[in-house]
Amino acid sequence: MADIQTTVLKKYGIDIAQENIFKLYKLEKADLNPQELQNAIDATRKRWTQSVNGANEKNAKRDGERLAKADKYEAVLKDDRLRKEVFAFYNGKKTGNNATGNTEFAKEYFKLIETSKKLKKEDVEFFFAYYPAEKKNKKAIVEMLQKEFKIPGIGSKGVEEESGEESGEENTSDEKNKKEKPFIVNLFQKETIFKIRKMFEYYATAKQTPDVIKKYPQIEESLYEYLRLDETDTLARLQTFVNSMKTEVFNVRQEKGSDFICMVDLFNKLGELCECQDVVDNFEEFKLLVKYPSLTPYMYSFVEMKKPTLKGLMDVANKEYVFRDEADFIISYYNPVRDNFGITNSTAIIQIIKKAQKQAKANKVLDELDKKLGRKKQRKLAFLPTLIYGLIYWPIFLLYFVFEVFRAIFTQLGKLAIPVFGVLFLAMNILLPKNLGMDNMLVFRKLLMKEEWLSYLQESIGITTDNIISLILYSLLVFVIFLIIYALPPLLVALFVSEAADNLNKQYDWIGVERTFQNIFQKLKQKVDTQFREKKQYFIKSSVFKILINVLCVAIVCILVKAVPMGFKAFSEKTGYFQKTEPVVQEEQSDYLMEEDTTAAEADKVMVVTVRSANIRSGPGTDYGVVTTGVEGQEYIATGDQEEKSSGRIWYEIYLDDAREQTGWVSSKVISEKE
What we know:
Number of helices: 30
Number of strands: 11
């Protein structure tokens, strides 16, 4: 029976499980002569045309959609073979044979519900009320339930009477055999469940209406995403949005016509839901019902959650939604809503929940990462397809890794402004004094000692003053000069880095590229998963060839990495190009002889003080204490020892007495050799 459904769907785009063509054309049998069929077609088209031009806008819209597909309906009816097979599909029997009809979905549904409780007549009534499309197979399903599940008190007529209401919304009695919860919050009621289902029906109609899609392109998303429930933290915010949209879609419907009735119905129904007490009491859980609507009828029917029940529910969930693993499913969906459906947990499930809560910590980190990267959750692959997936597509992963490295660098470049300033500031304080013979910022430590600072000012810039105001002004001047030299260039570079990072991140769509990669990975993973499950042997064989190609590429790259430098070196040795020529160093006299000659030449060198007052220190540098002072024109004999500082100044050792027993050190800034 499923074959005829697929055939008609592929050829004509009509799902006969959702639309009963025989009822639309009021046909009671498949054996029709051409005239009888044509009369039925003409009568139906006339009826629909009158409805479209009538006053009932809802019926006008419905029959207008039917008229648009009338040619396809009639093509099925005019094909004798298809007409008979479709009739048999609707009536649960094949021509000339007794058959059970399409009961596969119902069987899976009740088999899962049976793991949680003993099936009763009320469960069958709920099934047909929630899934009205399954009524076409009612007789076959009831026979299947009687035979395989032994449900007492059911029959096709009895079920028809109980489930005949179009939506079940008016039935306010809670027929589930569950323990009542305390009056802290309300459980989700049956009428609320049906209102949610009806809301999704209106939304599905809107998604199939071209004018609605053109006006509201976001309608192609899921209802949860369209309502932005992930950003809606309170029911009041949702009600505000719904009220504004109710006004908007009503005005649009008045302006553009009946195509927008579905939008009016959608927000009217959503407005009713916002006033339901169980939605008020359980708003966060209500959002989960909107996010995962296919699971709602199962959760409503469960009484006690057991291991087989949980496993079956996860299988249903994984057909439409993506959960990272069992822990993610339990923490994200099951645990938050189970109390709101009055479901009790078995001992085994309690242990599973505890384990899931521990695993949730790891999943939370992954979820936060997915959220920041704009990625959706991804279901885990089995080990073998995961391994094959990695071996086949590793070049894409490598490219993605390079992208992430660049992204991490450039998106965080603004945060590097301060470290860049610090590094450049330190580098300039080290390199400039060494190469240009200048003091660095460390010289200001001499401010702590007045005598040393005065001596530095005198020796470095030739300033001598005892006036405190002048001393402060000169010190500030020196400090500003040093800041300009050592701090201003690093500061300008840091500001440039910060500004460039902001401009780059504004102009380049990092998130867009990231999501593109994620979409590629998701599609490739789905492709691998599908091929592995459907064509396992063929997939493995074809994957081996792709993996070998990748291995060969890696081998070629490794050979090139090793061979290119070796070839370049051989070329350089053979031709002489790109070879470094060592400078020829001439022989010189030994350092020992040079030092002796220098010492001998300088032994009797006479040094003369060239400033008004010169400090003579105990060692070669201003860090050493002052031994005595010399006046302008005073002469001293050099010992021959001298030391050159990083600033470029030379410190000479001189004799302080005629006996040449006491010595001191003086800077070339204040003393020179006598001519």
